[in-house]
Amino acid sequence: MPSPQAPTSPLEFIRSSTFCTMAHVVHRLTLELAPHLEPYGLTPTTVAVLGQLAAQPEQTPAELARTCDMSPQRMSGIVQRLEADSLISRQGTRGRGRQTTLRLTKTAESRLVAIWPHLVDAGSPDSLQVSPAEAEHLRDLLLCALTPQSPPTSDPVVLVDEQGTRLGTAEKSLVHDSDTPLHLAFSTYLRAPDGRVLITRRALTKRTWPGVWTNSACGHLRPGETPAQAAERRVTEELGTAPLDLQTVLPDFAYRAVDAGGVVENELCPVLVGGIDPAGIDPDPSEVAEYDWVGWDDLRDCAARTPRLLSPWAVEQIVQLGPDPWGRS
């Protein structure tokens, strides 16, 4: 059998592309559904979110974002709108590091029931203009395409010399031992509009310093990243919302510390300060056990009087940051 030839023009690619075909189907279904959903104040996207929450109740916003394949920022906006429309409610106390979960309200349940016939019709063979066998085959193909693939196992850190020159990379899981080489990292201190500083307690499952209170968020740089780019990425992953107005205040901070288990951290770790929206925080439980808010003076006092209550890097950083790190130029 001859192999298929590659498209020879953009128009030919568009006509033959599986991606374009699927995009067209999605667009068509959206147009068909929208008039039926609008009277109930819903859209295809909000129906998908409510449907996932109906299938798996009691999810946190971060879990729901992952389930729906959305960024935490986008899901945060959708959740706020659904709360305002009394379609979902939160369970648990917010703002003290406790996990809050989401559930459908009775109003949402009744609206999903009301629109159910339209959802069934939109996905029927007649609507798609295919035979029942073809519709079942299409469903199987789509489910296969939507099945999450195993993420890449590579998680490199960037090795550097004492001057910060990048030397190459090494696997994070392999490089941290009793003789960890110097590598790039970052630390952040983020405050709320009222001036209080976010501190986090490392998850109990962390390999090093489990359960220890520390700064707002920290992490490693990936190849090609700047400290600010790494902070934007990692803060959003760990805390469910992006940092605001980041500025680097200790560009040359470095430290070496040994965990109780003998694992060494050895990092060139620029320190950044900025802000964060308390309402958007939804921490990843595999990274953050809980969080709290403290005054900067109280945190400095803790670092000076009871340093063992904090991570070793936080203690050194807090001392060097001084009385007003957000006011540094």
From TrEMBL:
What cofactors are annotated for this protein?
A: Mn(2+); Mg(2+)
* Keywords assigned by UniProt, alphabetized: Cytoplasm, Isomerase, Isoprene biosynthesis, Magnesium, Manganese, Metal-binding
Q: Where in the cell is it found?
A: Cytoplasm
Keyword tRNA processing on entry? no
How many cofactor units bind, and how? Binds 1 Mn(2+) ion per subunit.
Q: InterPro entries from the xrefs? A: HTH_MarR-typ (IPR000835), Idi_bact (IPR056375), IsopentenylPP_isomerase_typ1 (IPR011876), NUDIX_hydrolase-like_dom_sf (IPR015797), NUDIX_hydrolase_dom (IPR000086), WH-like_DNA-bd_sf (IPR036388), WH_DNA-bd_sf (IPR036390)
Q: Binding residues for Mg(2+), per the UniProt record?
A: 238
Q: Which GO terms describe its biological process?
A: dimethylallyl diphosphate biosynthetic process; isoprenoid biosynthetic process
PROSITE patterns documented for this protein: NUDIX
Nudix hydrolase domain boundaries: 181-316
Task: Please provide, in alphabetical order, the Gene Ontology terms of the cellular component aspect for this entry.
Answer: cytoplasm
UniProt GO molecular function: DNA-binding transcription factor activity; isopentenyl-diphosphate delta-isomerase activity; metal ion binding
- Which pathway does UniProt place it in? Isoprenoid biosynthesis; dimethylallyl diphosphate biosynthesis; dimethylallyl diphosphate from isopentenyl diphosphate: step 1/1
Task: Specify whether Ribosomal protein is a keyword of the entry.
Answer: no
Catalytic activity, reaction form: isopentenyl diphosphate = dimethylallyl diphosphate
Which residues are Mn(2+)-binding?
Answer: 176, 183, 220, 265, 267
Give the EC number(s) listed in the UniProt record.
5.3.3.2
Report the function annotation for this chain: Catalyzes the 1,3-allylic rearrangement of the homoallylic substrate isopentenyl (IPP) to its highly electrophilic allylic isomer, dimethylallyl diphosphate (DMAPP).
For this chain, the family text in UniProt reads: Belongs to the IPP isomerase type 1 family.
User: Would you tell me the protein name for this molecule?
Assistant: Isopentenyl-diphosphate Delta-isomerase
Gene behind this protein: idi
